[in-house]
């Protein structure tokens, strides 16, 4: 359940110190060393999963319940104006640490966090075709 040489396994299990804002038997929540905005934090399961594809269903559901609780606590503490949850899977999607984690990003009016994308265009026919492709794979 642990992976050799995984930095987030070591942080989650307390072998490497971190700015911890929450801990229980299954999770540690730490402040990100390279914050997008003040209070940017990461939910780390103590067990190793490379990414969302590998994540245990029970851990997946408890991660979102914890994210909801942390968003409330952090919003009260930091007086932020909004909140993003971000979760990257694969290098192309921006994942740099290959131990599943969920980013908790408080947002402030006028902050410099840059999490958006440029909207593309898709016709209803294209969307219908893509929807069929996905549903066929279920
Ligand atoms: P991702 O790009 O989604 O894989 O996110 C990895 C995040 O981990 C980045 O936001 C990094 O700033 C953060 N990070 C990497 N190493 C550490 C560390 N030792 N302590 C805290 N945050 C870290
Ligand atoms: Zn790990």
Task: Estimate percent helicity.
Answer: 25-40%
Give the overall silhouette: globular
Strand count, sense and barrel status of the largest sheet are: 5 strands, antiparallel
Bound molecules: adenosine monophosphate, zinc ion
- Sheet-strand content, in percent, reads 15-25%
Helical run tally: 3
Quick overview:
This protein is an alpha+beta fold. The chain has helices at 7-12, 57-78, 124-136, and strands spanning 20-23, 27-31, 41-45, 82-86, 102-107. The chain has 3 helices and 5 strands.
Question: Could you give the topology of this structure?
Answer:
Blueprint: H1 7-12, E1 20-23, E2 27-31, E3 41-45, H2 57-78, E4 82-86, E5 102-107, H3 124-136
Antiparallel strand pairs: 1-2, 2-3, 3-5, 4-5
Bound molecules: adenosine monophosphate and zinc ion.
Descriptive notes:
The chain has a 5-stranded antiparallel sheet. A hairpin with a 3-residue loop joins strand 1 (20-23) and strand 2 (27-31). The longest helix has 22 residues, at 57-78. It has helices spanning 7-12, 57-78, 124-136; strands spanning 20-23, 27-31, 41-45, 82-86, 102-107. With 138 residues, the chain is α+β, with helices and mostly antiparallel strands. Bound molecules: adenosine monophosphate and zinc ion.
Key features of this structure:
five-stranded antiparallel β-sheet, alpha+beta, 3 helices, 30% helix, binds zinc ion
């Amino acid at each position: 359940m642990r992976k050799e040489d995984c930095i987030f396994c070591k942080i989650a299990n307390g072998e490497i110190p971190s700015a911890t804002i929450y801990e229980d038997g299954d999770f540690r929540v730490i402040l990100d060393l390279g914050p997008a905005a003040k209070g940017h934090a990461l939910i780390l399961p103590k067990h190793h999963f490379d990414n969302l594809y590998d994540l245990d269903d029970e851990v997946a559901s408890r991660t979102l319940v914890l994210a909801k609780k942390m968003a409330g606590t952090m919003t009260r503490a930091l007086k932020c104006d909004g909140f993003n949850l971000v979760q990257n899977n694969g290098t192309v999607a921006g994942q740099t640490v290959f131990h599943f984690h969920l980013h908790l990003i408080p947002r402030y009016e006028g902050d410099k966090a840059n999490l958006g994308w440029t909207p593309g265009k898709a016709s209803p026919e294209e969307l219908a075709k893509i929807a069929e492709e996905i549903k066929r794979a279920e």
